[in-house]
Specification:
Length: 194
C-alpha cells in the first residue's frame, strides 16, 4: 500500500485528487493543512488529517515519516514552502515529490505574456528543479469541471499546447505518478486537454 502525504489538502486540486486516490487505489493518505477543522476526513479508515504549516520544517518532517510520496498543491510564499519541503524530505529520507505549478512559468504559452502573478510558481519550480529529489512538476492549464479524462503533456522547453484541462484529467495523472515512482521523474510537464 502506497502512503501519500498531501500538502495543501483543503485546496481544490488536492480535494479532487484525494477523492481519486480513495476511489481508484488502496493508498493511505495523510491530509496536511493549516487549519484541520476546515476539512472533514473523507475516509477515516484510509486517511488521516494533520494540522500544520508547510513552512514549519519539523512539523513537515514529522508528517513525512513513513510516507512514500509527497504531493504538494500550494499557494502563498511557494518558494519558501518549496525550500522547506526539500529540506524536510531530505531529513525524512523521502525522494518522490509531485508538485503543482502553473502553465506559463517558462513563457512557454504561445501568444501569452504572464507578469509577476506567476513569480511564486516560477520561483518554487526553480527550487524544486535545483534539488536532488525525484520530482515531477505539473504545469496545468485552467481547470474545468467536466467528467472527461483526456489530456496531453508537454515537456519543459516545448510550447504549451491548448489552454484548459479538467480536474479529472489532472487527478488521473497525479494518481498515476504517485503509484509509479519512476514515471516522469525530474520532469516539468505542461498538462492540457488533448
Amino acid at each position: 500500500m502506497t502512503r501519500i502525504l498531501i500538502l495543501g489538502a483543503n485546496g481544490q486540486v488536492a480535494r479532487h485528487t484525494t477523492a481519486f486516490f480513495l476511489q481508484r487505489t488502496d493508498a493511505h493518505l495523510t491530509l496536511f493543512l493549516r487549519r484541520a477543522s476546515r476539512l472533514k476526513n473523507p475516509d477515516p479508515a484510509r486517511a488521516s488529517v494533520v494540522e500544520g504549516d508547510v513552512t514549519d520544517r519539523e512539523a513537515l518532517r514529522a508528517a513525512m515519516q513513513g510516507q512514500d510520496v509527497v504531493f504538494a498543491s500550494l499557494t502563498g510564499d511557494m518558494a519558501k514552502q518549496a525550500r522547506t519541503i526539500v529540506d524536510a524530505m531530505h531529513a525524512a529520507g523521502l525522494k518522490r515529490l509531485i508538485f503543482i505549478s502553473s502553465m506559463g512559468i517558462y513563457s512557454e504559452v504561445p501568444g501569452e505574456k504572464y507578469a509577476s502573478v506567476l513569480d511564486p510558481y516560477r520561483n518554487s519550480a526553480a527550487v524544486i528543479e535545483a534539488s536532488d529529489l525525484d520530482y515531477t512538476i505539473l504545469r496545468p492549464g485552467w481547470f474545468t469541471h467536466g467528467a472527461e479524462i483526456d489530456y496531453q503533456l508537454t515537456q519543459k522547453g516545448e510550447s504549451f499546447r491548448g489552454h484548459d484541462v479538467s480536474l479529472n484529467s489532472l487527478s488521473d495523472l497525479i494518481v498515476k505518478l504517485a503509484l509509479s515512482p519512476t514515471l516522469e521523474v525530474r520532469r516539468s510537464l505542461g498538462v492540457s486537454r488533448a
